[in-house]
Amino acid sequence: MEETERELEKCCVPLLYTAVLESVEIELCEEDEIVVVEFKESLPIGTGVLNMEFEGTLNDRMKGFYRSTYEHNGQKKTMAVTQFEPADARRCFPCWDEPACKATFKITLEVPSELVALSNMPVIEEKLNGDLKTVYYQESPIMSTYLVAVVVGLFDYVEDRTPDGIIVRVYCQVGKASQGKFALDVAVKTLGLYKDYFAVPYSLPKLDMIAIPDFAAGAMENYGLVTYRETALLYDDKHSAAANKQRVAVVVAHELAHQWFGNLVTMEWWTHLWLNEGFATWVDINHAGEIDEIFDAISYRKGASVIRMLQSYLGPECFQRALASYIKRHACSNAKTEDLWSVLQEESGEPVNKLMNSWTKQKGYPVVSVKVKDQTLEFEQSQFLLSGSTGEGQWIVPITLCIGSYDARKSFLLQTKSETLDVKESLGASVSSSHPWIKVNVDQTGFFRVKYDEDLSARLRDAIERKCLSIGDKYGILDDYYSLSMACQESLTSLLALMGAYREELEYTVLSNLISIAYKVARIVADAAPELLDNVKLFFINLFQHSAERLGWDPKQGESHLDAMLRGELLTALASFGHEMTINEANRRFCIFLDDRNTPVLPPDLRRAVYVAVMQNVNKSNRSSYDSLLRVYRETDLSQEKTRILGSLCSCRDPEIIHEFLNFLLSSEVNWDQICKNLRGWIPNNSLHQCNCVTGRFSSPMHFNLVQARRKEVEQFFASRMKPYIARTLEAKHRKGAHQCRMGQKHSK
């Protein structure tokens, strides 16, 4: 709320049944983001109306009410867009800009007559006045300020209706309407699904979704007018990959869930953000400047994981009934975390409040160690820390396990630090004579890591090779083992042995995670033991070849959406690890593509793999592929294609080309202050994601002195650049860095 953005001119309070009281002074407190209005006399107790005249600026910060620019047919165009979450409605108009201060909004806009003007509610009247028109909208239901939205510009749209008669439209730049059809179909179906799930219909007469060229977040759930990045809403059958299609479906479903969880029932304050985003975390927010900091991976991922664990523990039917009751009870109002626990506890009869407090009132999550001894299993919990340090905390952990079969299943609550289970007595099964596999945290529904002793680990590797386990369990074993390895609780050698058990894996979810882990392990080896890197790359090539050969290069008739995504990921991995046959075939197809951009030999699902592959042999004296990719980038107007190319150009191994690419992205003069100026409002969001990306790559604590030096360097860098929205992330990084340095000598050994 900066004075340069809005000038408050005068205020008056027409008290009901009394005279109008004029203000004598208006003071803007920028640091606290409040306005103080002083009147000549004390205001009497009672109901009144505060009238304020003010001026605002259509800014370029991608927050508040801002202008977004784009090109159409070679001409620069501008649209006006709002982004008010979390606390930027105050940049547009004076208001009590807190989620609990709900109100109805009756909006009127005066805009150039040729433009489309959208807001939360349908238009009730338009009046033309020369080159301008005045657009009047229906009064909104009661809602929070951060959900108010306005978009003005030139747009095309596609339209459909739900069986209930709700008008659903997808707006986009002129000429791109066909790219909105998939999102439109998803939205119409999703509204029906949520109506049935929450047992409450969508509460507005229309739903508009619009693609914005310059948009800081992935999407924003404004009531009745949801805004998206173009890549999160538009899908082109000819040029978008299967992964882009999946992203559109997931983002649309996520934002429409907010129309119930967030818009109809809103968190009381940002501490309870998960009630809006559908997840839980432990965060206390005291100042508006800190709110950006909680839109981070912990909020989204921890919260979603805890909710999934609770749904599994209570059962999906009970969980759904409770959510429907919660929505009805708190509709058009605000709620706290404890309100949801209360309804779930009433519906289930389980101690939900006690159980969930152990997850939302303390940081982190546990690792449960499991050992087999005769006919008993020994369980012990402790806080999991990636640094490998011993953490504090104790959780009420819903334990599920299977022994040798998914028919032999046991569940219990681990409420103490340790506990033993007599398997023969509980399940009638023997864990010693026939040596069956034992999987704890069945289908990975619990939000905790599992560490097995050597005997149990060997049994699970065998079960993976014999294809005895579910997709969720195969994924979970690998994911837990990787995290334990990074925390130095398992060796890298044993992790590679486990990865080898997945050589004949066919499932996308498992293989995609396997590929991701392979990249991370290769980076660590490159840093810690570069002389072993070629051997590690060869191991990964052999690991992925079977699955890649099964899928082949060309799509098969009727193949699944997941196979289409997997093909590209496998070929990208093989190219990245230097598989010569993959690189040669990619170069062949790329040459054909350069001559014919519509060739079937390079469909969208293969493009990233091919782009990465052709960059593998690029260097200063052999740069034709780099120049060709840059040309394709400049010629396309599809955001998803531009993103693919930018992500591939940096795959080059030549430092001089990489340096040239960085100059292309920014400029030779760019430093931190220039980045802040260029990216403006985007920097604070998502906990300074760039800082996490950069400092998070300081490869493990294997080099004690290096990590120590870099930690001090980062601290010194930010010492003179501290802001409220940076503080939380840096504090977390400081704690992690301290742990890494303490563990450094152990890793070096």
Automatic annotation (TrEMBL):
InterPro entries the UniProt entry points to: Aminopeptidase_N-like_N, Aminopeptidase_N-like_N_sf, ERAP1-like_C_dom, M1_APN-typ, Peptidase_M1, Peptidase_M1_aminopeptidases, Peptidase_M1_dom, Peptidase_M4/M1_CTD_sf
EC class (word): hydrolase
UniProt: Zn(2+) binding residues: 254, 258, 277
Active site: 255 (proton acceptor)
Residue intervals of the ERAP1-like C-terminal domain: 437-670
Membrane topology: Peripheral membrane protein
GO molecular function per UniProt: metalloaminopeptidase activity; peptide binding; zinc ion binding
Any Pfam family hit: Peptidase_M1
Domain Peptidase M1 membrane alanine aminopeptidase, residue spans: 182-286
Entry similarity comment: Belongs to the peptidase M1 family.
Protein's recorded name: Aminopeptidase
Organism whose genome encodes this protein: Sesamum calycinum
